[in-house]
Amino acid sequence: MSKPRVAVVFGGRNSEHAVSLMGAGSVLDAIDRDKYEVIPIGIARDGRWVIASAAQSYAIEAGRLPEVDASGTALALPADGGSLMAYDAGTIPVELGAVDVVFPVMHGPFAEDGTIQGLLEMAGVRYVGSGVLASAVGMDKAHMKTVMAAAGLPIGPYVVVRERDWRLDRERVIKEAESLGYPVFVKPARAGSSQGISRATDRASLEAAVELAREHDPKVLVEAAVAGREIECAVLESLGDEPPAASQPGEVRVEGGQDFFDFEAKYYPDQMSLDVPADLPADVAERVRAMAVLAFQTLECEGLSRVDFFYTPDGGIVFNEINTMPGFTSLSVAPQLWAASGLSYPQLVDRLVQLALSRSPGLR
């Protein structure tokens, strides 16, 4: 019998391009080649799909972020989910065969936001992770907060800054944001990996922060600062009929002197540490785990997610956000949480592929 064919897809047309490559490199190193046939597929910044070359770099080297090498053999995925087709200029397309499951190690717009999931749904191809709706709502932090608040999860105060309002009624928007009280955190509504996030302490820095966030997304979120410890919990779908499982909660500590858990703290060496399990009272840890599962189920997630909270000095737990495809290097938070909970990185990769293979294409 032939081995299941897994296409590991990475890159994309957004500011999290490099983060995707770093995660894909870890997946490609960990996936069991005796069990699966693996095809590494990169999506270049211009949207071109290519077979990754043997020389493709997936790591930060000499301070430079990795990028998909667009010179590889171009690929096309037929709309009917048939065989991958490879083609180069002036050559006859070559059929590469069908793919059993796609592992989209991708983040941000045109990737984690339901777009690639919709493409794969239309083609009838199984894939790792959440479906179109969960991915789209999870990506848009404004809609995510609305849905989670409706489910009863505690949400911190925030203001949504929409493109039209910022252009036509900026003074009102600024006053609404200032009503949250300084400091505030300003972020693109539909981005991740701390791209475009700033801490604002006055009007001038608030305006500058909104403009920076708008470089990534015309829709911006301004959030009141929440005093508390940053606690994260990963959730994993069951292979059977059991409910989703939550990992041990972990606490993120920024070690590099940054004001918050920014891009460098997340992806550069020696900039953060993770305490697993977090030093929490037993009942608080169980509340965090239960709330993480509630968030996962509320969004109807599949595969895995990472859910972020703040634990406040008065013993409260505030929901921050859910990531339907969290950072996925072997040293990223979600894999570390599962490793500390007894599931190694290669086992986690295998579980996610098996979950995808167990699902039927189409509505579910």
TrEMBL record:
It is an enzyme of class 6 (ligase). It catalyses: 2 D-alanine + ATP = D-alanyl-D-alanine + ADP + phosphate + H(+). This is D-alanine--D-alanine ligase. It comes from Nonomuraea longicatena. Its EC number is 6.3.2.4. PANTHER family: D-ALANINE--D-ALANINE LIGASE (PTHR23132), D-ALANINE--D-ALANINE LIGASE A (PTHR23132:SF25). Pathway: Cell wall biogenesis; peptidoglycan biosynthesis. GO terms for molecular function: ligase activity. Belongs to the D-alanine--D-alanine ligase family. Its cofactor is Mg(2+); Mn(2+). Its main location: cytoplasm. It is found in: Cytoplasm. Cell wall formation. Keywords: ATP-binding, Cell shape, Cell wall biogenesis/degradation, Cytoplasm, Ligase, Magnesium, Manganese, Metal-binding, Nucleotide-binding, Peptidoglycan synthesis. The keyword Mitochondrion does not apply. Residues 145-354 form the ATP-grasp domain.
